[in-house]
Amino acid sequence: MSKIEMLSRRQLVQACTAAGSIIATNACTQQAPTSEKNISPLIIDTHVHFYDPTKKGGIAWPKPSQKIYGKKYPEQLNAAAGEGTVSGSIVVESSPSFRDNIWIAELAEKESSVLGAVINLSSDTEGFDKHFNGLVRRRSVVGARLRPYNNHDVSSAKMRRYFELLADNNCTFEMKVTPQKDNDAFFSVAKDHPNLICIIVHNGHLKIDGNEPPEEWKDQILRLAELPNVRIKVTTLMQFAILRPRPISLDYYLPLLDFIWQTFGEDRCIYGSNWPTSELVHTYRENLNILFQYMENKPIARRKYFYQNALRTYNINI
């Protein structure tokens, strides 16, 4: 097959808004658990990284010595996930370079399967302030991620102006929230900007040991979840597993998944893979199969998690 068979934006939204929309999984699921053999939901992967070391200016990450170095486009994502598994994606920045921010925004405008771009909110990058207004107004830009996390005063007038601009343009704010730090900064942004959708990335960055999450971490997450504009991306579970080899059994991740679902509910959890970074430790299908198993008896929550919540969160209404 010479061309990737991805749904167009119009086809995707039509399918997602139809009652009970589903697609059958492809032949690569023949050895997968029963939950995946039957019917799988449409999938919008809201956390992928696309890059090309051969483009003008190259890339700062990953390094040539790393396993995930090379061209990473929707074609490679499609091959990793399985033909037709991922119906659309949101590309998330992997570089503070303003040139790279423009590159992913332009990629989302050219590739019909890329539904939006989340740029790097790196206010200390040269030229960022001058160009941010124009960049966030591009139709392909759907959000911004603050990284690195400890170099910014989120209460400063400049940062508050950025957050207001994001909210005014129906864009999200995304940030790493770890068990040790960053919670106060994230909380203040979400509380002070109630019209801004704020997303906790990668399950709250908790190291997973198979047990009930620590009470201190749960208290921090519960505090954030009290704010109605906060969402959470449930992404690469296996990357955060402490046990070696990394478990592929749902039971190991069940305490964390149950806590997240009970805390945020089915309307505020969003699917993402962290591909191709995730391939440093597991295949795309291994982590997806765990989530398929968790959703096996939750048909409504499954549709919301895998695609409907993404459409709402990123204001995709084409």
Task: Tell me the name of the CATH class.
Answer: Alpha Beta
Count of separate structural domains: 1
Q: Tell me the strand percentage band.
A: 5-15%
- Characterize the largest beta sheet: strand count, sense, and whether it forms a barrel: 8 strands, parallel
CATH topology: TIM Barrel
Helix count from the secondary structure assignment = 11
- The structure class reads alpha/beta
- Strand order in the largest sheet: 3-4-5-6-7-8-9-10
Count of extended strands: 10
At CATH level 2, the architecture is Alpha-Beta Barrel
Q: Averaging pLDDT over every residue, what do you get?
A: 87
Evaluate the radius of gyration.
Answer: 19 Å
**What percent of residues adopt helix (DSSP H or I)?**
25-40%
Helix/strand order, N-terminal first: HEHEEHEHEHEHEHEHEHEHH
Q: How many angstroms does the end-to-end distance come to? A: 28 Å
Overall form: globular
Unreliable parts: 1-7, 17-39
What is the name of the CATH superfamily?
Answer: Metal-dependent hydrolases
Give a structural overview.
By secondary structure, the protein is α/β, with parallel strands linked by helices. It has a single domain (26-313), classed as Metal-dependent hydrolases (TIM Barrel), CATH 3.20.20.140. It is 37% helix and 13% strand. An eight-stranded parallel β-sheet has the order 3-4-5-6-7-8-9-10. Strand 5, helix 5 (128-136) and strand 6 (141-146) form a beta-alpha-beta unit. Helix 7 (183-192) runs parallel beside helix 8 (215-225). It is globular.
